[in-house]
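Quick note —
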Amino acid sequence: MAEAKIKTPLFHIAKRDPASMKWYTGVIVRAVAVVAALIVSGVLIMLLANINPLEVYSSMFDGVFGTERRIWNTLQDLAILLCISLAVTPAFKMRFWNCGAEGQVLIGGLATISVMFFLGDVLPYPVLILVMIVASIAAGVIWAVIPAIFKAIWNTNETLFTLMMNYVAIQIVAWFLKMFVKSGSGVLGAMPEYGLPVVGGKQFLLNIIIVAVLTAVSFIYLKYSKQGYEISVVGESENTAKYIGIGVKKVIIRTLIVSGAICGIAGLLIVGGTNHTISTTAVAGRGFTAIMVSWLAKFNPLTMVLTTFIVVFLDRGAQQISTAFGIPSSISDIITGIMLLFIIGCEFFLRYKIVFTKHAKEVA
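Predicted structure written out below.
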């Protein structure tokens, strides 16, 4: 019989075994991705703006850590984004694609400002704060549990449902602003006298402490509690969950109650602890950024601290270089995009590996 040569590809892509991968492999891959992103960004900076990349990177660090005020602002931004990321994590781990955190946080903030506006002069301050907390959490829960009920009972598409509710929340806030602001300007003045208390003379310290506690509680809840285990099982396979006796509908609704409650707390921190007012852009797109933060951290609340810091660092650094060098914000956004692309893209090499093959022969 004649031998026939069969051409085989030079390489193929195979899925990695997580158990066999060394801990330092992830560190090396991510470090290489960051270095590669810095090199590519540096080349683009020289081509587009004719600026020394080292000066740009130095300016980014200065924009984040240059002064005590900037450090506190960075920590505040980190706390708020991390809080919203913690909110979407239980739902996403359960494979419930909650894209409505923007609206859930905004509704929580609306509940907070409503209490401040209507009851600020009526209730004693401690009672006012308690009512603000309850109102914000309740509002966030209501806004999150509506799509959860529709998903659990009628299997509606949660992505579209939660997205549409974002727009409803924005219009509700716009309508309330018309009622709050009689001048017609649509701008509600700040009411710091009714806001959350200032701890240690630092305006944002309370926000940071609350989010730090939420991070620890979320980690314990998802990793060690029975409910966290049920979330993981439902996320892996609803059929398996049903087979072992887990009530999938109950888990969906309960998990979105948790997500909505944390979103309500985020709204409370934004309105009651930071801005002391509200607008339709108060959340500033962080509800969508939080999805990327949570996904990059693989739904681990502790790892999420690092991924949140990376996103906040790039965002504030981009604002700084745009101001310091007078370059269009589009260039700074390109730099941010490149760095995020490399950081996200390196996850491919952690999940898969390239295997080189030799040419094989087959007897015909």
